[in-house]
Amino acid sequence: MQFARRAFLALSFILVFVPALAQAADVTVFAAASLKGPLDDAAKAWSAQSGKKVVISYAASSALMKQIEQGAPADIFASADLDWMKYGTDKKLIQPGSVSNLLGNSLVLVAPTNSTAAITLLPGVDLAGAIGDGKIAVGEVKTVPAGKYARAAFDKLGILKSVEPKFAMSDNVRSALALVARGEAKFGVVYATDAKAEPKVKVIATFPEDSHDPIIYPFGLTVSSGNADAASFLAFLQTADGHKPFEKAGFAILK
User: Fold this and answer.
1) How far apart are CA 219 and CA 237, in angstroms?
2) CA distances for 145 relative to 14, 18, 41, 175, angstroms
3) What are the residues facing 28 on neighbouring strands?
4) CA-to-CA distance for 109 and 159, rounded, in angstroms?
C-alpha cells in the first residue's frame, strides 16, 4: 500500500512538473508591437531548424520593459527604440554585451484607403487644417516609441501646437493603425512596415528622416534569462534566413 502511494505521488509529480519544465524551456520574447508578423515568421523558421519553440508577447516597448522590470519572465527584449533598451541596460535588466541593433524603419502618415488627401510634410504644413474636426492617431507620445517619434517630427516641422489637440493616442502603434483602418481617425502616424501590413490604409506621406531620431530596433538578452536557446535564436535573427521575413515586411536590415 505504501509503495503504491509513493508510485502515485511520483507519477503526479511527473504529470504536474514535466509540462511546466517543457514550457520553461521555450524561448520567451517580449517584442515591440510593430514586429508582429515578420518576427512570428522568423520564429517559425528557427523552430523548424532547431526543434525549439518561441513564445512571443507583443505590446509597446515601454509596457514590455516595465513588465520585465517588475519580474515578468522573458529571455529576449526587442524594442522599437534605443531609449527603452538603454533603460533596461541601465537598470541591469538587459545583458549589455548581448544587445544588437538589428532593424530600421521609417515613419509615415497614413489615411484610410478611400482618402483623397494630398499632403507634403514640409515645415509649416497645415496638417491641422487637413485633419479638420477629425483625429490623428498616434502612439502615446511620452512612452510609446512611435508616439515619441511622431511628436518629435511634428515639433521639427513646427506644427506640434496645431496638431497636438487632435491626437488620438493609443497604447501601441498597431492600435493607432487600427483606428485609421476602421475609419475612426482621419490620419495616423505609424511605421512604414505597419502601413504595408494593413490593406485598409494607404501612405499619404513619409516624414523626413531628419525630423526624428533614427528608428532602430535593438534586441537583447535579459539578465534573468537562464535559457541557452535564447542566444541561439538571437543569433539566428542575424543570419540571412533570419533576415528574410523582415526584408519581406519592409524593414531595413542593420545587422
Assistant:
1) 10
2) 44, 39, 23, 13
3) 55
4) 14
Number of H helices, E strands in the chain: 11, 11
The answer to whether the beta carbons of residues 42 and 242 sit under 8 Å apart is yes
Cα separation, 173 vs 107, in Å, equals 11
- 3-38 pLDDT per residue, tens: 344 443 444 433 333 334 334 579 999 999 999 999
Torsion sign across C-alpha atoms 53, 95, 65, 86:
negative
Contact 216, 210 (CB under 8 A): no
DSSP 8-state secondary structure symbol assigned to residue 132:
T
Residue 240: partners with Cβ closer than 8 Å, 6 or more residues away: none
Given a contact cutoff of 8 angstroms between Cβ atoms, the answer to whether 185 and 150 are in contact is no
How confident is the model at residue 18, as a pLDDT? 34
Determine the average pLDDT of the residues in 149-175: 97
Number of residues that make up the chain: 255
Dist. CA 226–CA 169, nearest whole Å: 37
Could you tell me if 146 and 152 are in contact, meaning their C-beta atoms sit under 8 angstroms apart?
no
Closest CA to 35 of 231, 244, 217, 220: 217
102 grid coordinates: 538589428
CB atoms within 10 A of CB 27: 25
